[in-house]
Amino acid sequence: MKLASSENIRFIDKEIEYKHNTPSIVLMENAGRSIAEKMTQLFSKQSKICVLVGSGNNGGDGLVVARHLLNNGCQKVHVVICSTSLSKDGQTNYDILKTYRDVEIYTIKTLEKAKKILWSSEVIIDSLLGIGVNKEVTGIYAEIIDLINQKKDAKVISVDIPSGLKACGSLSKWPTVKADHTITLEFPKENMLIYPHKKVVGKLHVVDIGIPKMVRDRVRPSSYQVTANFVKKLLPKHREDSHKGDYGTGIVLGGNTNMAGAVKLSSLAAVRMGIGVLHTIVPNEIKNTVQNYMPENITWAIDYSKSRSSLNDTAKVLTKSDAMALGMGMGTKSNDQFFEKLILSYKKPLVVDGDGLNLLSKLPKGVIKSNWVLTPHPKEMSRLTGLEVSDIVENPVEVCKHYSKQFNCTLVLKGASTVICSPKGIAFINTSGNKSLSKGGSGDVLTGVILSLICAGATPLAAAISGVYIHGLSSDLLLESQNYRGILPSDVANHLPKAINSITQ
Ligand SMILES: NC(=O)C1=CN([C@@H]2O[C@H](COP(=O)(O)OP(=O)(O)OC[C@H]3O[C@@H](n4cnc5c(N)ncnc54)[C@H](O)[C@@H]3O)[C@@H](O)[C@H]2O)[C@@H](O)CC1
Ligand SMILES: Nc1ncnc2c1ncn2[C@@H]1O[C@H](COP(=O)(O)OP(=O)(O)O)[C@@H](O)[C@H]1O
Ligand SMILES: [K+]
């Protein structure tokens, strides 16, 4: 699903106004009416309602909402104009509204008056600032936003976007409305789906405001939400008359003396996702435990400190493989030469995770190839880029877009909302998954999932997008019947077939 930036919305408004001869006030009317209709499902008509109106078109929408709430039978509507000026369409809607009988309109001069109205309201409709927020929120807006956030016993519903939140880009450091519901127009905005911004959005609703399909189709966003339907289309098809060769030969390479679990989990996930043949390559010390973990994989032993002989011993397997997942639990001691030689010689798609990323961060980024998928969490991303972790988690989409282009590869920036970016910097935001995944080993499962999808024929980007979604979905399905605390990464791996069924059937 397309996610809109402020520029995308401006593009739509221009197309409608100039190519389709539609005055902007028509869209404002559609928006306000659709929002008011949605609102009637969210509170009773008897509620005491306060509509807070700002200077731009978001405020104009609020004035249309107030009128349609009255038309729909709400009787206790107070409108508070929080600015000395209104937009042109906002002014027109103010002139219409002031002819109505059952509405009280105040233009606030002092905060005291606004406070009194707010304090006695059961529903607060926030139409102070929309996607036009372009500077620090200070003064009267900041004070009103603080008041809204202090009032815990009212339902706060934001029009289009919580006031103060930016549609895209880094976390705003200024007061922002914390909404219970956000009713957004036509397309969700990028930041609404991603933590930490997502925390202020509440329940997200998207309403149709009558933008013609031909205009919607012309919108070219730089980010998309990953949906089940999209993933269904990306999944490699499996045939009844297939054989194991159709689903590829993959390699999981990693592990160390005290870290056999990571490769076990990646391997388990790869076979649960349907890989044709799996070879697991690990240090000799852990070969037996990895082999005994599951009968489906073929296990090979190596010694990281002897890169030449290790690469020679596994040369045949490496050459025959379709893709490799590399680095899980590998450690970073005495294996940098092995790692460098391996990645320079391996030409097939590579999924680099965990210590593989830590080893990669010490090398020039020119070694990265366009058929690679890197799967860092914020700390690993910090090592790869030199950015502070806080800069990454406060602006994950922009960071991921920038570095996927710079590294020229598929980048999976993991977190509570994972961002996947193509080498051209197009972002795909995942919303499946839950806090049951916040455990050591969850990322190893994801790596195996992505590997398996590449081996079955998906492009690295398609495998990353669908892998992240299915991995999260598997944990969501488990959460339906059990508490998040006890859901294990291996449970998530074992549940992958159910997750696939829920998409494909
Ligand atoms: N296609 C769409 O999506 C449509 C969107 N509409 C509405 O239009 C809104 C966008 O309208 P605008 O572009 O007028 O933007 P806003 O309503 O967000 O208001 C921007 C105004 O506020 C001022 N401003 C920005 N940041 C400020 C700050 N920190 N403190 C004080 N003032 C600040 C700006 O100078 C400008 O005058 C959308 O959010 C939506 O509600 C609808 O009216 C019609 C169609
Ligand atoms: N709260 C959460 N909601 C959704 N997904 C989460 C959450 N916490 C963690 N995850 C997911 O779990 C995985 C954790 O990966 P990672 O930190 O690399 O773990 P490890 O290296 O221990 O395997 C990532 O895919 C991440 O997106
Ligand atoms: K708003």
Automatic annotation (TrEMBL):
Q: Which residues bind AMP?
A: K414, G415, A416, S417, T418, G443
InterPro entries for the chain: Carbohydrate_kinase_pred_CS (IPR017953), CARKD (IPR000631), Nnr (IPR030677), Ribokinase-like (IPR029056), YjeF_N_dom (IPR004443), YjeF_N_dom_sf (IPR036652)
Q: Where, by residue number, does (6S)-NADPHX bind?
A: 57-61, 130-136, 141, 160, 262, 329, 377, 444
- Biological-process GO terms, alphabetical: metabolite repair; nicotinamide nucleotide metabolic process
Could you tell me which residue ranges the YjeF N-terminal domain spans? Answer: 9-217
Q: Which cofactor does it need?
A: Mg(2+); K(+)
| Reaction(s) catalysed (UniProt annotation) | (6R)-NADHX = (6S)-NADHX; (6R)-NADPHX = (6S)-NADPHX; (6S)-NADPHX + ADP = AMP + phosphate + NADPH + H(+); (6S)-NADHX + ADP = AMP + phosphate + NADH + H(+)
**Keyword tags:** ATP-binding, Isomerase, Lyase, Metal-binding, Multifunctional enzyme, NAD, NADP, Nucleotide-binding, Potassium
Q: Tell me where in this chain the YjeF C-terminal domain is found.
A: 227-503
Would the keyword Nucleotide-binding be found if you checked this record's keyword annotation?
Answer: yes
Pfam families named among the record's database cross-references: Carb_kinase (PF01256), YjeF_N (PF03853)
Molecular function as annotated in GO:
ADP-dependent NAD(P)H-hydrate dehydratase activity; ATP binding; metal ion binding; NAD(P)HX epimerase activity
> What detail does the entry give on cofactor binding?
Binds 1 potassium ion per subunit.
Q: Where does K(+) bind?
A: N58, D126, S163
What is the E.C. number? 4.2.1.136, 5.1.99.6
Briefly state the protein's biological role: Catalyzes the epimerization of the S- and R-forms of NAD(P)HX, a damaged form of NAD(P)H that is a result of enzymatic or heat-dependent hydration. This is a prerequisite for the S-specific NAD(P)H-hydrate dehydratase to allow the repair of both epimers of NAD(P)HX.
Q: How does it assemble?
A: Homotetramer.
Q: In which family does this protein belong, per the annotation?
A: In the N-terminal section; belongs to the NnrE/AIBP family. Belongs to the NnrE/AIBP family.
What protein name does the entry list? Bifunctional NAD(P)H-hydrate repair enzyme
